[in-house]
């Protein structure tokens, strides 16, 4: 299993970086340079890419090494993925050697065993890199290989420069990579690298949209400690956040912003759930809130422009200037999206993710705990989970009394309570009886979705009012849109009443 942290250098500071006392004091032997020419192979229909894998043959001097890498997972700044490597005699892949390493029953194993695969393989792009390698031994005893790469990716006539720093843990704790990266960030401008060289090469030959990453199901065990469950949940949230960074930065899909925000909300909810046992530094919580707030306007304006206004103006007369209102909303949404892009691409965000990764991996919260909390962290999580669910359900039932009749302020409080209960239920679902949790979660999700839709409508109403006030020529169309929103919300009242009634009848699945 390869475990590495990848950063991009924002300036050509490789020589200065190598000479930093921080690195030179940890260096086991003098740095050395390698000339690496890597050729990536695939079929015409990109079979390996469709399996989220890459196959390359790397030449260093007279030596050839082939490597098959899986897509793996990203948790914050850290990549974890499987790789299968072997020395080969020349520059053509040796599929027999790979078949010995990759299990036959896996999707990749089946691909490698296709009879005509060797005939279909061809070179698709190359990377030409000068690599400076440093072997480090950190003060904690960890062994790290640090590689500074400068070069180019080339696919036919298309090229892209490479200026990267990779740190791979050879022995020790992965969290210490994040701590080292934070120290480097103090010395030179860096940002997170969200793609491998293989990903970047494929992007040159195929127009591929970035994947929208939703939360992966959690699988917890009854005997898991509260601390282990917290780390599992937090890493799950971080994977969702990190997985959508590329979509936010590249601006390929509005849903990327939404799912990144969902990941941040889930993380903040998890921090709230475990706060009695694990205290997250307030400075870190403020930074999580900062990036969530930076993404908010992009999501809100995109919902208004691409959903609410489109529905509101369907079939309306021309004198409303619907096209002009839509164009104005889309222009504001584009500006907000650019600000979200800049925030996620910033050194501040890089520092946040590195700090989160280091905090989660090192379990710094243990320092200064009293004996009672230390003991509670090591106990099986089930009772803590049930107590949390009961507490959050009571809060929702209290705030939601007379749901269809309460004012918007109280309904907003009920929405927050429903969202927190839903996240807690999803976190702990695998600890609950499967035959009970399905119906409960379905009723809760429907209620929370409706309350979330109402909140979107309230936000859209405010944005429409603002747009009309700032651009008087659009005031009539924006006013029409607010009337449409009011009609939709009014028509939903009976539906909300039924959803609330059904949720109250669904027992907590404990």
Could you characterize what this model shows?
- With 510 residues, the protein is of the alpha+beta class.
- It folds into two domains: 2-208, Hypothetical Protein Pfu-838710-001 (Beta Barrel); 233-391 and 404-505, CHAD domain.
- The protein has 20 helices and eleven strands.
- The chain has helices spanning 14-18, 21-24, 47-50, 95-101, 107-112, 117-120, 175-187, 197-205, 226-243, 245-250, 254-273, 282-312, 322-344, 347-362, 371-378, 382-399, 408-428, 434-470, 475-491, 493-505; strands at residues 2-9, 32-42, 53-60, 63-70, 73-75, 78-81, 83-88, 122-137, 143-155, 158-171, 190-192.
- Strands 1, 2, 3, 4, 5, 6, 7, 8, 9, 10 and 11 form an eleven-stranded antiparallel β-sheet that branches.
- Strand 8 (122-137) and strand 9 form a beta hairpin.
- The longest helix has 37 residues, at 434-470.
- The radius of gyration is 26 Å and the shape is globular.
- It comes from Cupriavidus lacunae.
- This is Inorganic triphosphatase.
- Residues 1-208 form the CYTH domain.
- Pfam families: CHAD, CYTH.
- GO terms for molecular function: inorganic triphosphate phosphatase activity; metal ion binding.
Which tags fit this structure?
510 residues, 2 domains, CHAD domain, Hypothetical Protein Pfu-838710-001, globular, alpha+beta, single chain, 18% strand, 11-stranded antiparallel sheet
